[in-house]
């Protein structure tokens, strides 16, 4: 039986004249860049999703002074979406989505914003970006919900 030959060292496999460190640096940069683009796309999609949820809840269920119904629908939506999709749909989070949709009524603005900031950044900065929020006046939908809790 023939003895096994020792495996060649990694350095022996690299053809002469190739800068292995530069190659690895370039490959790492490609992976890092792709991951950053994936994260940016995910953040933009999440921000737009939260805006659409907030817009839908504000438009369909919280307008018209139906405070008790508005509060109950948020409790129900929170419970159902959390069961279906996991965390991120608490009552407080849904209320922030509504505030976000009311602070930025134009989808075009949200699309532009979502390409620059994640949902958590957008939610945190929405108050500073709108005169209504910066004057500490609650939005119509949030006023309805707050009054229903008293």
Automatic annotation (TrEMBL):
Residues 132-150 have a biased composition (Polar residues). Signal peptide: none annotated. Residues 27-123 form the YhcG N-terminal domain. It comes from the Bacteria. Residues 128-150 are annotated as: Disordered. PANTHER family: NUCLEASE YHCG-RELATED, UNCHARACTERIZED PROTEIN YHCG-RELATED. This is YhcG N-terminal domain-containing protein.
